[in-house]
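Sequence, please.
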């Protein structure tokens, strides 16, 4: 967009803001009428393992949000020499699932339990049996029921249970709502009604009644909204929370808060049937919009929805690039110790590109980048591991190829199920940090999925851009215009994609690596059980 036109849109309050809370970074993207990013902001953060749970504190959340927004405003001032006083709309997104429970005074009852926790196995198993529907351990309802099974004292005080995105939205608008995509990771959704499945709600309420708790499920869960519906406006208090400078006006409309899965679908135009996307960063998940439900319940497959409520099969692995990031940090430390400082972008580009020079099967090297447990492979607690034999071909190229292949190993376990179900997909689009180094992650993902992988020029923008698109759709759509039509015609119609087809050598190499990966899981399991 022309710089003067962009400045005018910002000054007139016609720009749209999207902010997403990822696992390691909070990112803000400001877009204009062309839907292209005008300015960005970010804030690095990291979860903590405290009291047996992966968590972020409330201070982490608000410091991160305010610093991220301030960074975006700084970018606007530097590029366009203007403040940000109003916006056409705002959208918030965050990591799906997890558990934030509040009492009537709005106080957090227990520290935020993120999606990364694998502490709800008993509850998930019992709910799967009760509902006849897969309930992953990450889901909010699994966390809630586990707290009930464990007779945690706080359950009698619960007034509201939500996700991270739902919490932020609530504090800024006063509205207790969730987008249907995020809500589908809280409790099963009836995709005909775009609401929580009432039969399952009634079954759960009987469990609540048996414990004599003073609430029912619908009383404590957020209301469900679909893409395009209004979800409240920024209050005076909310504006002050977001923009501590006091320049941002209240009254700005907000779209329904969404999870990172939904924003990933929006950011890749993967919201119509037979489309799919892979989001690869701290965690990795593949999502395919289904033409029909799967033949049976699979514990490895989450059934969620698009932001419009269409059924989606989701394969989610907890671990992807975190261990790669740790190794990159080690290489930076080595370079600095040698007197050759290098920025992280240069280090990542060098290391990722090196992986393409490695042996197809990684030369007999093996790794598990499990910083946390991995349900798909039956590992309860993560122990990052690197393994080789005396005669393995231990080169930097093979080392990096091993870690990139390993980042997709658990995902592949779930994808094999969808292949057996003969799920049809016309196109897979990739986004997230795994794809930022041009051509590398894309080529290796094509090998893992044995299908064409397309990446758009916005692949690195990720979910913050996706939630900005959902916020723009809410205020700019024509009467009766679907999200699918809006994205295809007004956002992605002229956007170029780069498609990579599977290389036969890579496909065979990945298959050989996966054979070793599956056999070697016993090593990871032993480390998890014996190395504290």
């Amino acid at each position: 967009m022309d710089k003067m036109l962009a400045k005018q849109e910002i000054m007139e309050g016609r720009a749209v803001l999207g902010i997403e809370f990822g696992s390691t970074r909070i990112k803000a993207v400001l877009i204009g009428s062309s839907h292209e990013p005008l300015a960005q902001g970010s804030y690095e953060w990291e979860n903590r393992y405290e009291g047996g749970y992966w968590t972020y504190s409330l201070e982490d959340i608000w410091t991160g949000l305010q610093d991220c927004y301030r960074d975006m405003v700084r970018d606007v001032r530097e590029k366009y020499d203007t403040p940000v006083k109003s916006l056409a709309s705002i959208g918030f997104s965050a990591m799906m699932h997890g558990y934030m429970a509040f009492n009537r005074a709005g106080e957090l009852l227990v520290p935020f339990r993120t999606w990364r926790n694998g502490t709800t196995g008993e509850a998930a198993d019992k709910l799967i049996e009760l509902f006849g529907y897969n309930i992953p351990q990450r889901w909010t309802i699994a966390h809630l029921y586990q707290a009930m099974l464990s007779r945690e004292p706080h359950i009698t005080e619960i007034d509201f249970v939500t996700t991270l995105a739902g919490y932020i939205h609530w504090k800024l608008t006063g509205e207790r709502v969730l987008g249907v995509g995020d809500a589908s990771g809280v409790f099963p959704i009836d995709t005909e009604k775009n609401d929580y499945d009432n039969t399952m709600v009634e079954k759960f309420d009987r469990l609540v009644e048996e414990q004599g708790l003073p609430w029912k499920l619908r009383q404590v869960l957020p209301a469900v909204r679909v893409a395009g519906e209004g979800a409240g406006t920024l209050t005076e208090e909310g504006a002050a929370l977001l923009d501590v400078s006091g320049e941002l006006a209240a009254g700005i409309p907000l779209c329904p808060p969404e999870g990172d899965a939904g924003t990933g679908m929006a950011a890749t135009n993967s919201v119509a049937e037979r489309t799919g996307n892979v989001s690869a960063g701290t965690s990795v998940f593949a999502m395919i919009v289904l033409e029909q439900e799967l033949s049976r319940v699979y514990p490895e497959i989450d059934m969620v929805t698009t932001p419009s409520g269409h059924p989606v099969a989701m394969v989610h692995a907890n671990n992807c690039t975190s261990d790669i990031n740790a190794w990159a940090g080690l290489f930076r430390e080595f370079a600095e110790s040698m007197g050759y400082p290098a920025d992280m972008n240069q280090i990542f580009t060098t290391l990722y590109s090196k992986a393409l020079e490695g042996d197809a099967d990684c030369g007999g090297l093996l790794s598990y980048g499990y910083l946390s447990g991995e349900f798909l492979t039956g590992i309860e607690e993560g122990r990052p591991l690197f393994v080789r034999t005396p005669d393995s071909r231990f080169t930097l190229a093979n080392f990096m190829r091993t870690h990139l292949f390993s980042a997709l190993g658990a995902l592949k376990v779930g994808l094999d199920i969808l292949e057996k179900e003969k799920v049809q997909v016309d196109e897979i689009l990739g986004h997230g940090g795994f794809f930022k180094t041009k051509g590398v992650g894309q080529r290796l993902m094509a090998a893992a999925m044995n299908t064409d992988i397309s990446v758009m020029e916005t692949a690195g923008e990720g979910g913050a851009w996706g939630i900005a698109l959902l916020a723009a759709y809410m205020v700019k759509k024509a009467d009766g215009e679907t999200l699918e039509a809006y994205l295809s015609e007004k956002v992605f119609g002229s956007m170029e994609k780069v498609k990579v087809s599977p290389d036969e050598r890579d496909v065979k190499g990945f298959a050989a690596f996966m054979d070793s990966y599956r056999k070697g899981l016993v090593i990871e399991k032993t480390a998890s059980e014996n190395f504290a």
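The chain has a mean pLDDT of 94.
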